[in-house]
């Protein structure tokens, strides 16, 4: 499956490049793609090279030396929000093409409740396939509307078959199950689904972790059609019989890359085996069969092997964006080589500038302890900041992201728990206080800004302080200079870490247990 992605990406790269040439301005050759403190490393857009890694001069190559501190380079945005908007499809044109007969109440909710009048390319491609009941994998860049790409056809189908469902009166027996890796994302998806179901008989329920034991001791029973849940919470409540999965016709794995990480794999595959995933697309809801949908901006390299345990992967239709695993061309990205000791001062300077501009921003850290420190530091420095990380108690963590979304606070300090799928349309600036050690994490963090519907200019500022961070930066810079795919975009982080540990053990002459070898 991954090899198929790569073939699609290569094939679409030429189509995308040709389209860009046709729509480019006459003076585009003079547009600076990369600007550096050392001007000899500046690069114009049409000066890109296709040389392999190691053969292209990199501004960050000399960053391993201590004297490089203070150096920086910037990847400039080459596409504006207006250009992105112009490339979208109007909703009326899409519906007139007859690829989806949308229920009137759903159409009304889409336009009035969510204010959607245009569809992105990935939505226009995915909606007819999902509506056709095919198992579908939607692999596309962050912020392009993957959630609506599956929610619209699934809700539309449930509305059409609502009167035909034989057991709709059963309690705690949904027909749609959406699994997410995080509570904030589950809450967000449930809110969007609720708005789309406004004025209909479809009921939406969000099931979050944190109080699972209490729900097992004092369970609630209610009618629900769409259940949005974290994997851990729903698996426990299904095992105890509180929730029933017999009526599920659509299973969605949102942020599938995280759910397919080795940390979740065993629990996920065990849970998914209970669903009768059909081998062909099914149009009749009375026929027992479950549709599998996956959505993500990155995918593990062993996706095929994992899914093969629960479904015939040959039946999955791939909807792949031509921009998948490429740098975001509409977001400016600045890389700063500084020492760890200088990071707080630089952060405070940027925070004050953003505060003066009334520009909401997100600060990412690699660890919860660092996220705590950043929050305390900014608050003590007069910058009101919210903190959100996975080590926080549920009652404290609950609602933190909504506070940022509502505009109660313009600064959010978080870990990668806040980088997956969350709709941070308000945010205009991402600061990587800790630079991520994996390219997939960098993709997701950058995706918190420049999202569909956001017309303002967006910026990513990266603090680079360690040797491991420099190695990742060099590969990103090479991709920018060549216009190629970002390398090593493997979202299975646990598998990467385990492989590195095993390699270090072998190098040190320590015997590696056979069952633990990767």
TrEMBL record:
Domain Helicase C-terminal: 342-497
CDD domains: DEADc_DDX28 (cd17948), SF2_C_DEAD (cd18787)
Superkingdom, taxonomy of origin: Eukaryota
InterPro entries hit by this protein: DEAD/DEAH_box_helicase_dom (IPR011545), Helicase_ATP-bd (IPR014001), Helicase_C-like (IPR001650), P-loop_NTPase (IPR027417)
Alphabetized UniProt keyword annotations: ATP-binding, Helicase, Hydrolase, Nucleotide-binding
GO molecular function, one term: ATP binding
Keyword check for Cytoplasm: no
Helicase ATP-binding domain residues: 127-317
Protein name (record): Probable ATP-dependent RNA helicase DDX28
Classification of source organism: Eukaryota, Metazoa, Ecdysozoa, Arthropoda, Hexapoda
Chain's gene name: LOC117564077
């Amino acid at each position: 499956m991954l090899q198929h992605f790569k073939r699609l990406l290569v094939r679409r790269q030429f189509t995308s490049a040709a389209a860009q040439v046709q729509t480019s301005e006459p003076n585009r050759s003079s547009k600076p793609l990369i600007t550096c403190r050392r001007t000899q490393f500046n690069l114009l857009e049409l000066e890109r090279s296709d040389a392999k890694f190691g053969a292209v001069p990199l501004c960050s190559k000399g960053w391993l030396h201590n004297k490089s501190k203070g150096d920086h380079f910037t990847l400039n945005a080459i596409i504006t929000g207006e250009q992105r908007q112009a490339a979208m499809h109007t909703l009326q044109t899409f519906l007139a093409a007859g690829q989806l007969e949308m229920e009137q109440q759903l159409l009304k909710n889409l336009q009035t409740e969510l204010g959607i009048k245009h569809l992105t390319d990935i939505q226009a491609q995915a909606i007819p396939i999902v509506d056709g009941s095919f198992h579908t994998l939607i692999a596309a860049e962050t912020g392009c509307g993957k959630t609506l790409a599956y929610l619209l056809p699934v809700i539309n189908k449930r509305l059409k078959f609502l009167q035909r469902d034989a057991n709709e009166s059963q309690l705690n027996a949904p027909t749609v199950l959406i699994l997410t890796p995080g509570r904030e994302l589950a809450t967000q998806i449930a809110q969007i689904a609720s708005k789309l179901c406004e004025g209909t008989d479809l009921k939406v329920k969000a099931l979050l972790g944190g109080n699972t034991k209490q729900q097992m001791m004092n369970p609630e029973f209610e009618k629900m059609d769409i259940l949005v849940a974290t994997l851990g919470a729903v698996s426990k409540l299904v095992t105890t019989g509180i929730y029933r999965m017999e009526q599920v016709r659509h299973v969605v794995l949102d942020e599938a890359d995280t759910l397919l990480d080795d940390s979740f794999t065993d629990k996920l595959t065990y849970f998914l085996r209970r669903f009768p995933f059909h081998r062909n697309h099914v149009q009749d809801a009375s026929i027992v069969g479950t549709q599998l949908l996956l959505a993500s901006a990155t995918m593990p390299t062993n996706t095929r092997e994992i899914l093969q345990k629960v479904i015939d992967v040959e039946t999955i239709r791939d909807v792949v964006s031509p921009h998948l695993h490429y740098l975001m061309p509409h977001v400016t990205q600045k890389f700063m080589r500084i020492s760890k000791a200088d990071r707080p001062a630089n952060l405070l300077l940027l925070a004050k500038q953003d505060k003066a501009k009334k520009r909401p921003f997100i600060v990412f850290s690699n660890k919860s302890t660092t996220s705590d420190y950043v929050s305390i530091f900014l608050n003590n420095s007069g910058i009101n900041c919210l903190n959100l990380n996975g080590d926080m108690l549920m009652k404290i963590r609950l609602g933190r992201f909504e506070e940022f979304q509502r505009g109660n606070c313009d600064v959010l300090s978080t870990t990668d728990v806040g980088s997956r799928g969350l709709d941070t349309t308000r945010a205009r600036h991402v600061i990587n206080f800790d630079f991520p050690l994996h390219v997939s994490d960098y993709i997701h963090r950058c995706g918190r800004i420049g999202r569909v519907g956001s017309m303002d200019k967006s910026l990513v500022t990266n603090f680079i302080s360690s040797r491991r961070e420099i190695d990742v930066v060099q590969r990103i810079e090479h991709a920018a200079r060549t216009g190629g795919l970002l390398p090593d975009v493997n979202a299975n982080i646990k598998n990467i870490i385990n492989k590195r540990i095993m390699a270090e053990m072998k190098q040190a002459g320590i015997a590696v247990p056979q069952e633990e070898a990767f």
